[in-house]
Amino acid sequence: MIEWSVSIAAVGFICLVIFLIFTLRKLMATLTETKETLSDARKSVNSITDEAEELIHEANKISTDVKGKMEAVDPLIDSVHDMGDMIHDVTSSIKRTALQKENRKTKDSKDNQKSKPVQIKLK
Question: pLDDT tens-digit profile of 101-123?
Fold first, then answer.
């Protein structure tokens, strides 16, 4: 009876070892595949990193170029602003002059009923 028990235990142990061998082989295959996947991922990340670096350098160049062009346009914008102020001053002066003339003519027309006052409409 002991011999049978030992032989059954030996057969069970052999089956367990065979099962473990198959499991370890599958595990090794999975680890190899994982290693290849990680290697491919590293290559892809390195490639993307290089492209991102290049893109950042190009963006910096464009930013510098735009900044330089904006600095070159600033005097023109200041000149246009000054010109707008001058036009506003001239327009205000013309309005004041027109109102003063209209007031004078209105006073003269009261004295002289025959002539009609000239009115200038400004928007």
Answer: 877 766 655 555 555 666 666 65
Terminal C-alpha separation, the chain: 123
Q: What is the pTM of this model?
A: 0.43
Q: What is the C-alpha to C-alpha distance for residues 89 and 55, in angstroms, rounded to an integer?
A: 50
Half-sphere CA count of 114, side-chain side, radius 13 A: 0
Q: How much is the pLDDT for 102?
A: 77
Q: pLDDT averaged over the chain?
A: 87
Report the distance separating Cα 12 and Cα 6, nearest Å: 10
Q: Report the C-alpha gap between 15 and 23 in whole angstroms.
A: 12
Q: Which two tokens stand for residue 21?
A: 């061998």
Which structure tokens are listed for 87? 């036009």
Sign of CA dihedral 59, 62, 67, 70: negative
CA distance 66 to 60: 10
